[in-house]
Design goal:
By secondary structure, the chain is α/β, with parallel strands linked by helices. It has 16 helices and 14 strands. Pfam families: Beta_elim_lyase.
Length: about 450
């Protein structure tokens, strides 16, 4: 018989997690005002809130931490990371930051002004937040297939070139400082962008004089999907595919807490020396000196090793196949998810799961709360709460997709844990017709409200 698939690592250390009762969870989530971000981690059994900074580092990364250089300026750890970024991505200039949204803050401080348009493929929440905070506008140019969760189109993160060109023609280039490609595209379900689309977008953007920036948090997973799904790439290594991908970018931002396989850190990298010089000033103001930028030397060392490890099939095969394991279990149970299964998370289609909960009562957040009560599993809403209010009308924005995202940390949980998640959702799915009410907002922030929002249950 064929040998079954197994993880390509062994466990050296374990961390206990507490198995709570439903009665405890009912009280805890009420005390947290029905916001899963407000729960302390000891009240969560399986934590799929995010894959950002929550994974387990390798022995090589921990060894690299011990040789970190904590010099304020000119740290050797900075130069190790700089060399690795240049080798993997091909960018000469880079600035470290404490995480990805900090890189966005610094770079957008250089590029964006009020009234600008920034097209892209389903901007992530922090990206859109930084754009709208500067009174600019993010425009979604994702292909229509991304919004059909039953479609198995292999590259649902792709940009629709006709939509993009329409934006380019809408205003002069001076009002479109950049377009952003998110790889993989988190908001559309962890969906990849094809190499052909990256190339075509870059060619069109160059024609209109618009720079291309990659939001690169899950770049390695994107490369894996290109290798597995796109003609002409099956024999290429992940590093070869990554190198080509970034030839179609003028700059990148990176949350290293995802495909850097570290617990903290980020960076931006670019070809334009003028951008680098201006960004350096903002980096010093917001983050730290240009050779540490809010990162400890030990963390830069761990990141350099992490970037090398994640750009291999040894790492990516194990990581993405666990995500697929959970997704396939849910589909076996008839649970509607975004297909094909994404790279870092399984996205449950909450509208189809809970068809009787009104959209005004936050369908995906309602499902997330019920899953926590059922199984002690913490996921996250990617739907109306995350979409925020329209900055002009102050009305709720109702996205085409309402997702419960189950983001799986790297090298952290076993497939037994995935079985618990699947069983919890199956139990809820069997009584879904009985769930008719959701949640209402008691208090919310003006921007990126989903992190701190206070909610209450709708009385039935």
């Amino acid at each position: 018989m064929n040998l079954p698939f197994a993880e390509n690592y062994k466990i050296k250390m374990v961390e206990p997690i507490y198995r709570s009762t439903r009665e405890q969870r009912v009280q805890w989530i009420a005390d947290a005002n029905y916001n899963l971000f407000n729960l302390s981690s000891d009240k969560v059994f399986i934590d799929l809130l995010t894959d950002s900074g929550t994974g387990a580092m390798s022995d090589r990364q921990w060894a690299a931490i011990m040789t970190g250089d904590e010099s304020y300026a000119g740290s050797s750890s900075y130069y190790h990371l700089k060399e690795k970024i240049q080798t993997i991505f091909g960018f000469e200039h880079f600035l470290p930051t404490h995480q990805g949204r900090a890189a966005e803050n610094v770079l957008f401080s250089v590029l964006l002004k009020e009234g600008d348009l920034v097209p892209g493929n389903s901007h992530f929440d922090t990206t859109k937040g930084h754009i709208e905070y500067r009174k600019a506008k993010a425009i979604d140019c994702t292909i229509d297939e991304a919004f059909d969760t039953d479609s198995t189109f292999p590259f649902k993160g792709n940009v629709d070139l006709a939509k993009l060109e329409k934006v380019f023609k809408l205003q002069p280039q001076k009002n479109i400082p950049a377009m952003i490609m998110t790889i993989t595209c988190n908001s559309s379900g962890g969906q990849p962008v094809s190499m052909a689309n990256l190339k075509a977008v870059k060619e069109m953007a160059t024609e209109y004089g618009v720079p291309v920036i990659f939001d690169s948090a899950r770049f390695a997973e994107n490369a894996w999907f290109i290798q597995q799904r796109e003609e002409g790439y099956s024999t290429k290594t992940i590093k070869e595919i990554v190198k080509e991908m970034f030839t179609y970018a003028d700059a990148m931002t990176m949350s290293s807490k995802k495909d850097g396989a570290v617990n903290i850190g980020g960076f931006m990298a670019m070809r334009n020396i003028d951008w680098y010089d201006k960004a350096s000033t903002f980096n010093i103001m917001y983050e730290g000196f240009v050779t540490y930028g809010g990162m400890a030397g030990r963390d830069m060392n761990a990141l350099a090793v992490g970037l090398d490890e994640v750009t291999t099939n040894d790492f990516l095969d194990t990581r993405i196949k666990q995500v697929q394991y959970l997704g396939n279990k849910l589909m076996e149970y008839g649970i509607p998810i975004q297909q094909p299964i994404g790279g870092h998370a399984v996205f449950v289609d909450a509208k189809k799961f809970l068809p009787y909960v009104p959209k005004e009562e936050y369908i995906a957040q309602t499902l997330a709360i019920i899953l926590y009560l059922e199984a002690g599993v913490r996921g996250v809403e990617v739907g109306t709460l995350l979409a925020d209010r329209d900055p002009e009308t102050n009305d709720n924005r109702y996205p085409k997709l309402e997702f419960l995202r189950l983001a799986i940390p790297r090298r952290t949980y076993s497939n037994n844990h995935m079985d618990v998640v699947a069983a919890g959702l199956k139990n809820i799915f069997e009584i879904r017709d009985e769930i008719r009410t959701g949640l209402l907002i008691r208090k919310e922030a003006a921007i990126m409200r989903h992190f701190t929002v206070l909610l209450e249950k709708v009385k039935s």
